[in-house]
Design a protein that fits this description.
The structure is a single chain. The chain is of the alpha/beta class. Helix content is about 45%, strand content about 10%. The chain contains 13 helices and 11 strands. The strands form 3 sheets. The protein has a 7-stranded mixed β-sheet with strand order 5-2-1-6-7-11-10, sandwiched between helices. Strands 3-4 form a two-stranded antiparallel ribbon. It has a two-stranded parallel sheet with strand order 8-9. It starts with 9 loop residues before the first strand and ends in a 16-residue tail after the last helix.
Length: about 350
Amino acid sequence: MATGPAPTPTRIALVSFPGVRAFDVSVITEVWGVDRTDRGVPPFDLRRIAADPAPIPLRGGLSLTPDRTLSWLTRADLIVVPGLDDHLTPAPAPVLEALRRAHARSTPIAALCGGAFTLAQAGLLDGRRAVTHWNLTDLLRAHHPRVTVVPDALFLHDDNIWTSAGTAAGIDLCLHLVRTTHGAEAAAAIARSMVTAPFRTGTQAQFIEHPTPHTDRDADTLAAVRAHALTHLAEPHTVAGLAARARMSPRSFARHFQATTGTTPLRWLITQRIAAAQKLLERTDLPLPEVARRTGFGSEITMRQHFATHLATSPRDYRLAFQHTLGQPEVDMERPHP
């Protein structure tokens, strides 16, 4: 049986120069440099880009050997800039100029953690919002006062440029970029392979204060409430109703929920409904009103409004872009998962 031509791999450019973080290089490589086409993930063509082909030393006795020079950026569908070991490391002038030209061509550019400093050196963050590790926000403001530094977010987007907070937030951003271009199932497959959380929104807090034994107990209770909500997404939920299940007042529940998860109960619930709707749109041919009902939006209009706000698309267009057959059973959002 004919299978048709193989899909064209998405071309990802990992921009490197002396001083980039080995961890971020590894994250980028793990997300886009591993062949997972046998698990339904589309093919990627990851290239390690530098000003010249000489090996680049990394901290810890490692090194990175570029396989393309900066001219390859004209072919890239996405450019990713790792963070830096020393956040004030100057990037080579040819790298900065190549990034400016890429942005002028409207190529999406993402920076992990201290990679925001590299984009700021190139002038790409002037007048734009950006995020970096919470411990570096003052440093970024001091050295690049024209950047609007957002102090508490995991990642954000401004004018085709993405920036992220530290370490785990870099993974979140990479998975988010896969999700927005290839769908929730592709991102989830990569997350499962990496044994990491498949869906954290960029608006969540960067860190949660260390819990005390008392708040540990609260966290267990809140985890049970979240599990209940996830297995009953089709039902209407209110903060008061969830608080009653946790045996807390609504105000206390909302405060403990945000302290534990980094987001509000309603914002968390909306993002979970969107994620569930994405899966149904990708996996099934259910009518849009039924998708809305199963995921708790109640109506197609409400679901469409939330897709427009959070994904900048409509459920119908999302289905057209990402629906594919994975050979998996239909998801029943009204039954608890085993």
